[in-house]
UniProtKB/TrEMBL annotation:
GO terms for molecular function: ATP binding; ATP hydrolysis activity. Residues 10-239 form the ABC transporter domain. InterPro entries: AAA+_ATPase, ABC_transporter-like_ATP-bd, ABC_transporter-like_CS, ABC_transporter_ATP-binding, P-loop_NTPase. This is ABC-2 type transport system ATP-binding protein. The keyword Phosphoprotein does not apply. Keywords: ATP-binding, Nucleotide-binding, Transport. The keyword Transport applies.
Length: 314
């Protein structure tokens, strides 16, 4: 029996955006975001990430194509579609002289939602903001201000949450706290779409990853499948005696000798078994009578994969 196809909560078909000056920011973008997933959208500056988010959130008018957000067309049924979406912008833009409680409560009212102090309290507690509820936003740290933006975005109970560079400018400890918070949101039924320059953020959190470059989606895949398919493992063996050339018996694809002849490297593709590859190499070295002093195995990161993908598109 075939596995059931995941249900899309955001469906983007043929999305185009050409700005007045002629810049073609998005070029026939097709993208489905699955309900209940954390989806990371990666791309260099100017790739089209911000334009894509702006269109889905109703802040930018598309030149062509359609976007359906939780069953609502963002163009024909703007108000209902927008009510399904929460947006946490990269910029820390909010009323600095209001209290945390007032600004979050007010955001809920902007969507025509009735007052719900129990819900607002729960959101503030979940974001570790309850003790700051009477504080003016101007007096909060950068990390706390970012939490307030998330609270505002959640105040009208959206099913879709966009996080644009959610941990920009926050320290590593707070970043990990926010990762945990995003997972809790996902566990509570909110679909998360995030853009990030921190590759480790996508590697840590995302279920699927999309890469956009030059206004086009160049790849979409599950994170683990992407790492497996495009990742590389390098086995580096430190030789006891330097070699002047790669022996003929070791002239395999992926095998190389470093410039000074002190190390032999074997590069394996993502689908190869790194443990088996390393063991086979060591056996061959022993059989050939080549002494070695160290063996090191390194695995490419998502950042390596991302850089390779973007360079190939250049």
């Amino acid at each position: 029996m075939a596995s059931q196809k995941p249900e899309p909560i955001v469906s983007i078909v043929g999305l185009e955006k050409i700005y007045q000056g002629g810049f073609h920011a998005l070029k026939s973008v097709d993208l489905d975001i699955h309900r209940g997933e954390i989806f990371a959208l990666l791309g260099p500056n100017g790739a089209g990430k911000t334009t894509l988010i702006g269109i889905v959130c109703g802040l930018v008018r598309a030149t062509g194509g359609t976007v359906i957000a939780d069953g609502h067309d963002i163009a024909r049924d703007y108000r209902s579609a927008r009510a399904k979406i929460g947006l946490v912008p990269q910029e820390l833009a909010t009323d600095m002289f209001e209290t945390v409680w007032h600004t979050v409560n007010f955001s809920r009212g902007l969507f025509g939602k009735p007052r719900d102090p129990v819900l607002i309290e729960r959101i503030l507690r979940d974001l570790s903001l309850w003790d700051k509820r009477h504080s003016k936003i101007a007096g909060l740290s950068g990390g706390m201000k970012r939490r307030v933006l998330i609270a505002k975005a959640l105040s009208h109970e959206p099913t879709i949450l966009f996080l644009d560079e959610p941990t920009a400018g926050v320290d590593v400890e707070l970043r990990r706290d926010m990762w945990a918070m995003v997972r809790r949101l996902r566990d509570n039924g909110v679909t998360i779409i995030l853009t990030t320059h921190y590759i480790e953020e996508a590697e840590e959190m995302a279920d699927r990853i999309g890469v956009i470059d030059g206004g086009k989606i160049i790849l979409i895949d599950e994170k683990h499948a992407l790492m497996e398919r495009l990742g590389r493992t390098r086995v580096t063996v430190g030789l006891a005696t330097p070699l002047t050339a790669l022996p003929a018996d070791f002239a395999d694809e992926g095998m190389a000798l470093t410039d000074n002849g002190t190390s032999l490297t074997l590069t394996l593709t993502g689908e190869d078994d790194s443990a088996t590859g390393a063991a086979d190499l060591i056996k061959r070295l022993v059989a050939a009578g080549l002494d070695f002093r160290s063996v090191e195995t390194t695995r490419s990161s998502l950042e390596d994969i991302f850089v390779d993908l973007v360079e190939k598109q250049a």
